[in-house]
Amino acid sequence: xxxxxxxxxxxxxxxxxxxxxxxxxxxxxxxxxxxxxxxxxxxxxxxxxxxxxxxxxxxxxxxxxxxxxxxxxxxxxxxxxxxxxxxxxxxxxxxxxxxxxxxxxxxxxxxxxxxxxxxxxxxxxxxxxxxxxxxxxxxxxxxxxxxxxxxxxxxxxxxxxxxxxxxxxxxxxxxxxxxxxxxxxxxxxxxxxxxxxxxxxxxxxxxxxxxxxxxxxxxxxxxxxxxxxxxxxxxxxxxxxxxxxxxxxxxxxxxxxxxxxxxxxxxxxxxxxx
Amino acid sequence: xxxxxxxxxxxxxxxxxxxxxxxxxxxxxxxxxxxxxxxxxxxxxxxxxxxxxxxxxxxxxxxxxxxxxxxxxxxxxxxxxxxxxxxxxxxxxxxxxxxxxxxxxxxxxxxxxxxxxxxxxxxxxxxxxxxxxxxxxxxxxxxxxxxxxxxxxxxxxxxxxxxxxxxxxxxxxxxxxxxxxxxxxxxxxxxxxxxxxxxxxxxxxxxxxxxxxxxxxxxxxxxxxxxxxxxxxxxxxxxxxxxxxxxxxxxxxxxxxxxxxxxxxxxxxxxxxxxxxxxxxxxxxxxxxxxxxxxxxxxxxxxxxxxxxxxxxxxxxxxxxxxxxxxxxxxxxxxxxxxxxxxxxxxxxxxxxxxxxxxxxxxxxxxxxxxxxxxxxxxxxxxxxxxxxxxxxxxxxxxxxxxxxxxxxxxxxxxxxxxxxxxxxxxxxxxxxxxxxxxxxxxxxxxxxxxxxxxxxxxxxxxxxxxxxxxxxxxxxxxxxxxxxxxxxxxxxxxxxxxxxxxxxxxxxxxxxxxxxxxxxxxxxxxxxxxxxxxxxxxxxxxxxxxxxxxxxxxxxxxxxxxxxxxxxxxxxxxxxxxxxxxxxxxxxxxxxxxxxxxxxxxxxxxxxxxxxxxxxxxxxxxxx
Lengths: 274, 625
Description:
Number of domains of chain B: 3
Number of helices of chain A: 4
Largest sheet of chain B: 9 strands, mixed, barrel
Structural class of chain A: alpha+beta
Number of strands of chain B: 26
Largest sheet of chain A: 9 strands, mixed, barrel
Strand order of the largest sheet of chain B: 1-2-3-4-5-6-9-10-11
Helix content of chain A: 10-25%
Number of helices of chain B: 15
Oligomer: heterodimer
Largest interface: A-B, 77 and 79 residues
Helix content of chain B: 10-25%
CATH class of the largest domain in chain B: Alpha Beta
Order of helices and strands of chain A: HEHHHEEEEEEEEEE
C-alpha cells in the first residue's frame, strides 16, 4: 500500500519539482529583452489623421478656447493670459510640443528601436524625440525637459483563439496583440493646446500605444490614448458640464495614426508658438 | 485499519499540495483570470468628453462644419441641402445613433457578458446605451453575418474576436444614417470596424466607418470611457410625435444653392471657408501649410445673393449592383417568407390554409419556387407556430394530405413581367388548388388592361377596382388586405398588407437601393408615387427607436422597415421638389439632367447605369403632364 502511495505522491509532486527546476533555470538566464517580447510592432512611419478636435489641432485656436479641457480656475487664468510673443521671446516655442500634447500635433511619427530595451519616437512637427525605456531606469537628473522621462512596459492580452492558459502567439512565437504603456514625468511645463492651455511641472502623462489587427482595407492604425494628470491646472468639470458621468480629474484624449510605407512626406519643421 | 487511514490522509495531503501548484487561472472562471481582467468589458462606462465637446459630443455641430471628414462631393451636397427641421418628422424624432457613431454621443454605456450556460463561454457582449438602440449585441460565437436581404438596423449586425487585448468587431447591415449631425450621411452599404481596448479603468472605443458611397477613405474616430460603478441610467423613453406641423408628406430641405447657413461656421469660428468644406485632405498634417494661405471667406464668384453656390464635380465611381441574387428563402415574420433570386421578390404566406404567393417572379425559377414553398410547409408541419387556432373551412387539403401544401392564390402587384412571369406555370402545377370558389390570380383591374399582350394564363383571373380588397376570411391566421395605389409606379399597383404578421409587400413602389421606376406608359406618375409612399408611411408602424415594427418587402432588394421607407419617401420628395423648381424656371429636360438634381443620392440609388437620368426624365415628364 505504502509504495503505491509513494508512487502516486511522486507523480503528484512532479509539477512542483518541475516548476522549481524551471525557476532555477530562469534565474540563470537573463530576462528577454523588451524587443523580443513585443506583442505589437510599433516601428515605422506613421501619420496623424485629424478627424476630431480639428479646430483645436489643425489651426491655432483663439485665446480662451478650451471647451473640452477640465481646467481648474488657475488653469483657466493661465490659459487666458496666453502670449505667444512672450513664448517666442523666452525661447519657449516648443511648449505645445511637449509630451503632454505632442501626439495631438498634426505630425508624422517615426518609431525605431533605440536598443533592445528602448523605443525611440521622433516627430517631424517640432522635430521632437522621445525615448521610452523599458525596465528599471535611473531617475532623471538635470532640469525637466519637454519630453520628460518615460518608462515603458508591455500590456498583453490572452484572449483570441487561444485558451486563457495559452498565450496568444504569432508565427514568430511572440504574444499577439497588446499595448505599450508609457508613463512620463519630469516634464518642463507645457501646453495641452497651442493656445496656451497649460500643464505644470508635476504633470504625469500616461499613454497607451495600441496597434490592433489591420482594418479590412489593409490600413494599420496606431491608436494612442494620452492621459494627462496635473494637480496644478487640471481637475475641474469642463465648461460644457457633465451630462451623465463624472468628468473630473485627468485629461484624456485618443489620437490615431495611420501606418505609412516609407518616409515620404517626412517634413521636419521647427516648433512654432503661433 | 489505522495504517489504511494514515495512508489515506497522506494521499489526501499530497493531493492538496499538488492542487495548490496548479496555476490559479485554471481554478477561476473564464474571463476572470488575472491576465484576462484587461479584457473584461462588463459593467458601466461613462464617456470622457475631452474631445470635440462643441461638435459631436454635446450640443451638436453647426451647419457647414465638415472639417476633418473624408467626405465626397455627394455627401457634401447631402449636407448642404439638409434642413435641421427634417428631424422633426415623427419617424426621425427617436432615430438613435448608429454603430460607428454611437460612441460619439455623450452617453453612458453598459456592457453585459452573455455566457452560454453549457459551455460557459462568452457568446456575446451586449451593450446598452441611451442614444443608440438600447440593446446591441456583439456575437462572439463565430456565427455568420445574415444574407444581403436581411433588414438593416441602426446597430447593424456585429461579430467580434479578440486580438490580444483588443476586441475587434465587424459591423454590417447598417441602415443609412449620419456621420455628423449636420446632414453628413452614411450609406446603407457602409461597414464599421471597431476596436475595444481596455487599459485599467479606461476603455478605448475606436470606430472606423468604411462607406464606399459617401466617403473617399475610411473615417476613424475614438471615444475613451471611464469605468463607472454607479447605478444604471434611468429608462430612456422616446415617443415619436409631430414636433413641427407640416403638410402631409412635406420634407424639410434646402434646394441646392439656397442654404443660407453654409458660411456661418467659417465666419464665426475663423476657419477658412474652403477648409470648412472638409474632405480627406483636411485630415492630414500637410493641410496646415495650405491653411495659412487660404482666404477666410467663400470665393466671391460663388456667392449669389448671400447664398454659396457649390460646384459638385467629383462624382463617386458607382458600380452596378448585383442583379441576380442566388435563389433562397428567408423567413420574414410569422408565416411570411421572402423568396429571392427569381426576378422580382416573391412574398409567400405559408400556413395551415396553404400558400398565398405575392408575385411569381420572372418565370425562370418556377420549379425552385414550388419546391421551396413545399419545404417551408414541411418544416412548419413539424414545427407549427403557435397561434393558428383556426383553419379556413374552404381549405380542405387534397386527398392524401398533409403533403404537398396547396398553393391557393397568386396576387400580382403590377403588370411587370418580372413579377407575374411565373403565373402560368404555377397555375398549371399539380399543387395549385384554389379555395372553393376562391380567387386564383388577383390583381387590380388595370393590370388586365396592361397584360392584353400576354398569354391568358399569365393575366389576373380575378380583379378589383376598389380602393382595397380583403382576402376573406382570415388566411393562415392572417388578415390579408390588398390595397390599390393609383397612378404610382403604374396605374395598377397593389400592395399586400399581412395585417397579423404586420408585413407589407410593396411591389415596385419601393425598390431597395434603386431609384423607383415611374412607368409613364403604364399610367405611372410622380405624384401618385409620392402619394403611395405617403400611404405606406401611414400604414407602417415604426418599432421602438424607429426600427423594425412593420416590415416591408420591396419589389426588389432587402427587407425594409419604416425608417428605410421614410428615407426613400424623403429622397423621392426632395428630388421631385428640385426638378419642379427647375422646371418652374423654364429649364429644359436636358438642362435639368445637366444640373444633376440626384447627384447626392446617386451613391445610394443610382448604381445602375443610366438610372439617375432615367428617373429625372420620368419625374420631369410626369410633372409636365
